[in-house]
Amino acid sequence: MSDASRTPHIDELLDQACQAINEGDRARAKVIAERVLQVDQGNAEAEDLLAAPADHGEIRRLTIMFVDLVDSTALSTRIDPELYRTIVGSYRDDVLRIVRRYEGHIANTKGDGLLAFFGHPQAHEDDVRRAAQAGLDITRAVAELSARVRRGFGFNIGVRVGIHRGIVYLDTAQDDVYGLAANLAARICSIAEPGTVAVSDAVEPLISSGFELEARLPQSVKGVESPVHHFRVIAERDPRPRPLGPLVGRERERAYLERSWADALENRLGTPGVVFQGDAGIGKSRLAWSAVDLAERSHAVVLALIGSPLHTDVGLRPVRRLLERRCGITRTSDPRQRLEDLARELETLSLDPTGVIPLLAPVLGIPPQTGYRPVEAEGRKLFELICGAVHDYLRACVRGAPALVLVEDMHWFDEDTVQAVRSLLNSDLGGHVLIVMTSRRLVPLGDAARAEVFDLAPLSDTESDRLITALHPSVTSIAKQAVLRRCDGIPLYIEELVTKLKDAPSDAGALSSVPDTLYEALFARLRSGAGAVRVVEAAGIIGTRVERALLSAAVDMPGAELDQVLQQLVDSRVLEPIEQDSWRFRHELLREVAAEISPPSLRREMHSRIADSLLSAAADGNPDWPLIAYHCANAERHVEAATAHGQASANAWQRGALEEARSYLTEALAQVERCARGSDRDQMEIALRLRRALLAQAAEGVASPNATADFQRCLQLCSDDLQDDDLFSTVMSLYPYYTMRADLDRAERLVRSIRASLTGSRRKFLPINEFALGMLAWYRGDFGYARSQLDLAAATLTEEATRELDAMLFMPNDPTAGLLTHRALSRYVDADLPGAEAELAAAERRCAELPFPQGAFSLAYARQIEVMIRIESGQHDRAAGIATELAALGEQHGFDSWALVGTAQHASVAAFRALSGPTVDPAALPAHIATITAYVDAWRALGVISLITFYDALLARLLIAAGDLDAANRRLQTALDLAADTGMRFYDAELIRWRAHATDDPAQQRADLTAAVDLAQSQGASLFELRSALDLFELSPETGRPALVQAAGALPADGAWPELVRARTMLG
Fold it and tell me: In the chain, where are the structural domains located?
């Protein structure tokens, strides 16, 4: 039959009529609508078309949703009006948020009902699916709201959702819809059961492939002549099954695997990688495991890195599972046994346990106290070392013999494991290693020539026919055609549906009852026998690896019966054994469906039992803290979930994964947010935030705004009593942040407030308080007071006080090392180079006594100060060497901020050298100016400004040497303005001295130098006074001589500071 002679479907005619009206051709629309009525007398949508007004709107086929509170009128009479308004407001906010998330549109409200439509003003090709998903989300959100209301007020609330799709008159001016479709959506809503979504028979065929539906008995509703057919939306579906049957239609891919493996056996494989990518169920895993079969039949080494949807954010999780399998480590292995097993594995592979264990033990969650010395590195550097050890381990596993590496489900890999695979693939594997990878999406692998990529397509009809026949040789032609029609060439869809036919050969309705989607086929598989549902729903909640001990804890079932059900599930191809007492689902979709079977209350109970089982093994075995946290969170045991996330953070920190450690603490805080309010909850939040702030400082520097945000929140949670350890720790930890930002007033308020609390047993902390006051005084330019406070602190500080304080502070600097470093700064201002060197040497000795990371971090700070002192004393070679050491120290330990500071200081030394020679090369100055400007501007932008005026002075000197006096003056004024704003005046005398060099006016020069001498003298800055007096003497010997005599005479006769030697020479 030709297209011209085909009778159009009623829906097509109605669409044509809509288009005609919207194009203004009402006459054609009328003809089409009347034609519909001839075929379908009384068609309400055609009658709506004939009655549609001629202006201010459009005729559209839209998906309409109506949402209504259950028994809202009765509820409003039982509770306080304000409470009713609050509850209804929360309900409406949830509905609005969800509808907008799916890009629907709220038209208006009718009482406590909300009318929304999908397809206007923004249309999508899946608007009806969006509406169904939004409806499900609304019922879930209101169920959660009801739970909160029940806990707080002792009653429940419920919601109904109705969805219909049909023709409406869309009044664009009034933002409203009219017609039967809008009314029918409200009627469908009225017959929905509380807490459910109901859809009309017009919606059902459009969403049945993506949602599980349940047919309901037709019901009569107001305004509709015939009973209304409707369906309940149970849940959304995500059809991603696992392959079960023989290889059909993959001859090219299979032949490539066979050729590659043959080449590997002959040590001549040129392209080591092969990637199978495509949608779930397309046959990736089936091909990959056929390669494993080839390798196993050759008695070759097989390594398996398997992704898990529950651990996508856990660093190196697939590597950890590989290590555990090869080392024979189980969940119940205690840390010492795990360490011994790891050492034995490394020795077998001829790897040095001494060097490798400290790098691989953290991956296995083995703490250093078990019996190994941790690597002295952290952050990015530690992580690079661990990744290198993983690479070496994988290489050792496949060294010297044909080997196959299975990399399964890379779309669930964390980035670190992807990098490990990428590194292995791009290394020299010797021609005998084949790496077979599967992924649903493209994963960048580096050199494209190292891997052959196969994009798997659905099977053709001929190939699908062959697969069906191979699976079920006696299948009838009718059944085969039904499977072909419904499966679209996806191998897994075919395998699952044919399996259902085979399992019910005597069921006359088996063919006709084939579900509309794969979801129901999988669901039927899960219900393969008595007791199966109880077991599979628990197994689905446990995860991709199902251990018998956990399963037994989750289900209340005798051991013999459990074993029987497990064997039944293996026989029915739901589960497959991995090793002794361990199984996995044959495909992830089976697990997802299984996990959704049980109601929320039962799911929470099973999560709780699983968590108990995991926690009971944590003390003596190998706790999987992220997994424990996952189950505790889903059991709504929020305190334990937060604790487990905290433990996971500690493990991640141990292996240098700072971002991962911080993310776990963020997860922990999210769990704390759900705990009941009270002092215990506040203390837990404070502890977690302080730890997260410490990690932020380690990664971003002590001026980290993220750390400060956590500290500020801790201040809000703390009591006002500084005897409270939490408040004391928080306030003390904020001090470095404020000093680095030159917020000296706030820092001093903190110090003064703490000082008032240092009574009783805390009096031992007074020296640290003196140190802090002395440090602030130094920044303010009050060098005499600073010197006395720092000396007092050094004389009275005890080791006991330092130890106790270390346990309370959440900052990486050691107080004693910091005190010694700042005493060196004090000595430098006194032009006492031997004294400064002695303090720096003492600081270095102190750092050597400290554990990592405090020792290395504190040494980096001391090195930064030493570079500045060496520059000021004219020891540029020493300064350059120390700056290089600082940059290397930062690189070695993963202190990125210190590596940057070291690099910047090295550039500063180079600039000083350019200025200090007998002649200055003008051509070299622009590069130095650009470099120092970039560093200084970056530090200002970050707010790290505690020493920045020193570098402003350097930049001004460069500009003066280049002849740009205006720019030099602007830079000096910027520095002086900052000093005035912050009170950070330690370098003001030097800034004013260099301002005298930035002018050609002798009177202004004399005035600035005189002012610099007076300021330095009032501050007690002997070195700065001497420098200004020298310049004044050079400008006007008669005027400057008295000042120079006084400045030089105030310094020790045996002093060797370069300016002092020069002054004595000039005075004669």
Answer: 1-52, 56-236, 251-455, 461-526, 987-1068
The packing angle between helices 1037-1049 and 1022-1035, to 10°, is: 160
Among 852, 835, 831, smallest CA distance to 1022 is for: 831
Query: Cα separations (Å) of 807 from 71, 214, 728?
Result: 58, 60, 12
Share of the chain above pLDDT 90, in %: 40
The Cα–Cα gap between 1039 and 1043 comes to 8
Q: Helix 815-829 to helix 799-808 angle, to the nearest 10 degrees?
A: 110
Q: At 613, which amino acid appears?
A: S
Mention every residue, 6+ apart, whose C-beta is less than 8 A from residue 175: 107, 108
Helix or strand run (H / E) with residue 110: strand 105-110
Alpha carbon distance, N-terminus to C-terminus of the chain: 120
Residue 41 pLDDT grade (very low, low, confident, very high; cuts 50, 70, 90)? low
Residue 236 Cα to chain centre, angstroms:
27
- At 992, the pLDDT band (50, 70, 90 cuts) reads very high
Please give the pLDDT value at position 512. 38
Task: Output the pLDDT for position 711.
Answer: 81
Is 47 within 8 Å of 117 (Cβ atoms)?
Answer: no
Contacts of 413 (CB under 8 A, 6+ apart): 305, 307, 312, 318, 421, 443
For residue 697, the tally of other CB atoms under 10 A from its CB is: 26
Three-state SS annotation for 573-640: CCEEEEECCEEEECCHHHHHHHHHHCCHHHHHHHHHHHHHHHHHCCCCCCCCHHHHHHHHHHCCCHHH
Q: Which two tokens stand for residue 913?
A: 């050298």
Strand partners, 106: 116
DSSP-derived letter for residue 412 is: G
In the structure encoding, which two tokens stand for residue 227, read together?
């009973």
User: Residue 872 corresponds to which tokens in the numbers above?
Assistant: 């000021």
Question: How many Cβ atoms are within 10 Å of 345's Cβ, its own excluded?
Answer: 21
DSSP track, 228-289: EEEEEEEEE--------S---S-HHHHHHHHHHHHHHHTT--S--EEEEE-STTSSHHHHHH
| Dihedral sign from CA coordinates of 756, 757, 761, 766 | negative
State the Cα–Cα distance between residues 531 and 553, nearest whole angstrom: 15
Q: Is 785 in contact with 777 (CB distance < 8 Å)?
A: yes
> How far apart are alpha carbons 489 and 221 in whole angstroms?
43
pLDDT at position 240? 34
User: What value does the mean pLDDT take over residues 729-753?
Assistant: 83
d(CA 97, CA 99): 6
pTM of the model: 0.62
610-666 pLDDT tens trace:
888 888 877 667 788 999 999 999 999 999 999 999 999 988 887 877 788 889 999
Please give the Cα distance from 509 to 506 (Å, whole number). Answer: 9
Ordered strands of the 301-306 beta sheet: 301-306, 403-408, 433-439, 273-277, 451-455
Burial class of residue 78, CB neighbours in 10 A (0-12, 13-18, 19+): exposed
Report the alpha-carbon distance of residue 385 to residue 375 in Å, rounded: 9
Q: Within 10 Å of residue 44's Cβ, how many Cβ atoms? A: 17
May I ask the CATH architecture of the domain 251-455? Answer: 3-Layer(aba) Sandwich (3.40)
Rg (CA), the chain: 38
Q: How far apart are CA 826 and CA 836, in angstroms?
A: 8
Q: How far is the CA of 252 from the CAs of 255, 258, 646, in angstroms?
A: 5, 10, 50
Give the whole-angstrom CA distance, residue 7 versus residue 13: 10
Which residue is associated with the tokens 């003056």?
969
82-91, long-range: CB within 8 Å, 24+ apart, which pairs?
83/153, 87/145, 87/149, 87/157, 88/112, 90/145, 91/142, 91/145, 91/157, 91/159
Contact, 1063 vs 1026, CB < 8 A? yes
User: Can you give the pLDDT at residue 721?
Assistant: 58
Please give the CATH topology (third level) of the domain spanning 56-236: Alpha-Beta Plaits (3.30.70)
